[in-house]
Amino acid sequence: MREKKLTLWLLGLALALCAALAGLVLLQSSRLRALRENTPAAISSAQEDAPVSTAPENSAHLTEAFGLTPAGTDETKGTATAEISLRLWEDQMDAAVKLLIEAGEKTVSIPLERSANRTYTAPVTLALPDRQSGENAPVSLTVEVEDSGVFSREWLGEYPNALFMTATLRADLKEGGMTYVRKSLPTPGVGLMRMNPECRLSVLDGDESVAVKNAAFRVYCNGKLVKSLPAVEDETGRNLYGPKAWDNALVCRNGDRVILTFSCTGEDGRFYEFQLETAYITHEQGDVTSRLMPPAVS
Length: 298
Prior knowledge:
By secondary structure, this protein is mainly beta. The chain is 12% helix and 47% strand. The longest helix is centred in the N-terminal third of the chain and has 36 residues, at 2-37. It is globular, with a radius of gyration of 26 Å.
């Protein structure tokens, strides 16, 4: 009888140890899965053997401003040329700065020259959409900074075609557009991105504001258009536009990337869409970064 009780006691102890071990394995698996979900991917290097900057996506903002000045088109070759200019948040005098342009199946690397006012510039020529064939290759822009052998990259965005090289219009954002509010909701990592009612914007051609039609603020989440907010002209200023008052909150979750744009039809009849701000949502915050870019044109 004693041997039977001892056997049953040892069996119970073994089962308890197995249950505890299984619980520990499940806990560690959950922690690792959460760590993977909340850890942004490292930025890839232009050279496989070179060190890579591992700044997280929500803080790897290299570019303070990016713009271009159209320099003309060549109807014979079907190309457009523009002077590209950009400024970095942190000026690095000894750094090598390049603009990587991916158009269709081709990728070119354009070295940028640093001027005395901390602006990096270079002339760029791209093929325009083929009017006869209707061929429309998307154009993706990436800034690459190499400092002391360490490469960092920032993706600026993608255009549906190269017509942005011909745009003389630019957006002048007077007041910030988006605000992120973290909520204590049942689902963890959830917050609200709102369009600020006091946001105001003008469209400039040179230094003069111009009138536009069909104006709207657009909100994209992870590349998909999720909200289009009608814009109205402000009573206090000519050619000054703000969002029409209505509930425009967007529910955001960890890992979401939100982009705010302004779209309109110009006096030339072309459709323009200006990127204004970006935000990357993490567990604790959704910092909004100003990102004024040349408009997409169609």
